[in-house]
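Quick one, T. Sequence first:
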Amino acid sequence: MIFFPGISRRYVTSLVEGGFYNFKRRFFIGRYDSVTVDFSDLPVDPFGAVVRAPGCMIKVSIGVDKLRSLNLMAFPCGAGTHHPFSITAKKILAGSCQHYGDSPLRDYYDSCQPYYAGQFLGLESVSSPRVSRMEARYVTFPWDKSFGEKINKKRNKNSFIESSASGFDVPVNGGWLAVGPVSLEKGKFEFHRIYKLISSLEREGYSEKMCGSDSLSGCLLITDTDYAIVVSSGEHRAACLNVIGVEQVPIVIKKIVHRTSVETWPAVLSNDLTVCESLQIFDRVLIGKQQKYFDPLSYC
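Structure tokens:
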């Protein structure tokens, strides 16, 4: 994790022991070596939470419009979003979409198929010859990790495990939920997840307990004046909450990335991207803007 310099986990532990928080059990979730400080029931935004609990994972309640989803596509999750999961969920509730074959989700996967890394990163040109020749499936956020085959293998593995657990026979190379192309079985699986989730949300409303202990979680992108959270766990929930009118949601922040730390990001250190290219990506994701090649009219 990337934290503000000079502030350690030992410091926040000393604050707790010294009575800075009234009761440890009220704020802390889990063990001290993986502390999550819970501010979700308090009027504390991510800025305040980071200062009050440095070096720890934090849980805060934020507006869904501050959530960014589907990796580098960076879809906002608030009202009016072009997020394909949200559009599909609305169609399902309206009764105009019952199957993957006639869904906006299929149209999205058929139309949004970036091939080169530069397209998916949202860069008009990439200075690195290696990355300029690289396929889109091999890249991710520059602050996350260096680019390469391992990224694609991990995505394929996770997709296979998730789909198999739900009884879907998605091949290992069946595609990834963020962009197309995907296999027919993978598309059906993602549609099934949206259909099942939005039906439950309409019937019972949203509760953190609906998915057991798997809370919404993500990475906090932060500047001196603004922030956004990239969802890492709970993509479908994050996208569907606005459909039933939810405006605020608790989320666990597991990683913090400040714009000023760009020179330490893996893609910069490995010379996959320049500082300027990395900041272009950060700024685009922060405001929830999609890449130039993207056309929401193809499925909305």
